[in-house]
Records
---
Amino acid sequence: MGASLQTLRSRKSVVLQGMSNSRQQISDLESKLSRLQQASNSLNEHITSLNDIKGQVNNLQIDSNVWKGEEKSTFDNHYDQYKTVTEDYISKTETAKSDIDEEVTRTETSLSNVRTGLENLEQSLDTINSQIRKAEKE
């Protein structure tokens, strides 16, 4: 076996290892993407639910005959705090969803890049295999 054939087989081994690594990366990224999409969908459902609750809280009808004086003032303060906390929680949840959606986009880009890399390695393997067959005939 000539040095050229040894070199080609060595390159083939490196390419095969790279393909194996790429396939593992693809599997990991697909799993990550699935988890992120599930989290995003779940948060979207929670945001819808929270907005429904917020609407109910904001549209709460207060019987002014029941709440008077200091009790009404105390109630109004608690009611306003509750509305503020609800709005803050919704805002933070929307921010978390936005962050997850950005990570989904980054992960999709990484996945696309790794798939392209794998395709390139497959083409390299085909070329190396062809070169090996040619070298073996010589």
---
Amino acid sequence: MLELEGHTLPERVLGVPGLLTVTSLRHPIDRIVSLYWYEHVAWHVEVKRQPQNAKPFVEWVANWVDSSPYKQAFLRTNPGTNYVEVENYYTKGLVGWGIDRESNPVTGATKTDLADAKSALGRFDLVFITEWSRRESQLAAFDAALPGSRRALERQLVQGSEGLKRDWAAKLMPDGPALEGAMHRLRVLNALDLELWGYAQEQAARRHAMVAALRGASADGEGVATKSSGGGGSCARGATEAAVLTGQGQLRKQLGLFRPPGHKE
């Protein structure tokens, strides 16, 4: 299994024969809030035991928007990384922002990027929607494509700390005009991702229905063979083992979990 997290997606990853490609999405604004608590606050409060270093949500958001000097300096040192991203994370991630195309902190992601992101999303075999984690059609689709995955998906191994939010929300993310302004700013800045989010749900539902239909046809004895859409739908899953291993060997140098220094700030 090959994983990519914290780095934008090189286009060539979707063209490797024989790989089953899977991606996951959740509501863009919910993802940002969760990222703040899980990667920033929990790190400083629970891991480092240095709560004085935890920034208020409004300040943290200001540090990570594209126009921020901190973020621009961070990306110059770590091009293509997006482990911490508060502007159109999914759109940028799917088009190789900072890798296959130059990142522009002035214009940010564009409608052209959104169109390309939708195209890239359509090339994935399966799309997992976090908010549908208990939906039977999604669980069945993943278990059919990846036998045994249902149990892992149902368990939700990574969860945020509700106690942390309860104890620190009044200090770090208090209700009021400042928070309302920050949330409004995030909705405006993430307009592309919010549109992509709606499109992703359509794609996911279509994929899940397709898998269900294939499973039904197979159960009826029609012998329907599934194919990987990893190469735009052209790559049969029966690709030779040598070709798959060669492709994986090349990709391992570019894939993995990217958490460059400074992403916790």
---
Amino acid sequence: MKRFNWLLIGLVVLCLAMVPLAGCVAKSEYEALQADYDALNADNDALQADYDELYTNYAAVEAELADIQQVYPPRDFATRQALVEWRNTAGIFDTPNPLDDCRSLQQIALQDGYIVSISVGLEELTYGCRAIAGDSIYQILPWELSVAWIDYVY
């Protein structure tokens, strides 16, 4: 029985000595795992940098797209009031060539995202601009700030 007790105690001591060693790995295996871990961290950092760059580019493209969508495609004015407000900010053009004045006003309208057409009176060779606002057509003269109603859009 004494012998059995000593054998049992020896077995318990052996088991207790093995428990801390159970989770151990060889040093070379540890170094290989550490190298893999470091490589994965480096890959993760590179991917994060790529993501940050792409997200920054995406935000810039989104902002540019929003600017483009405000202007293009060109559209008619929503109301007469919107036309009058735009006309007041566009300014007056009064050069010796009225056709150039109309083209200048038309170009500013296009840059602001609006459609303004040039009208030519052939009988007296007169120039002016026309724009649609709401359900009406309006005459705009580049050398005046007035906006005159012409007709309804049918």
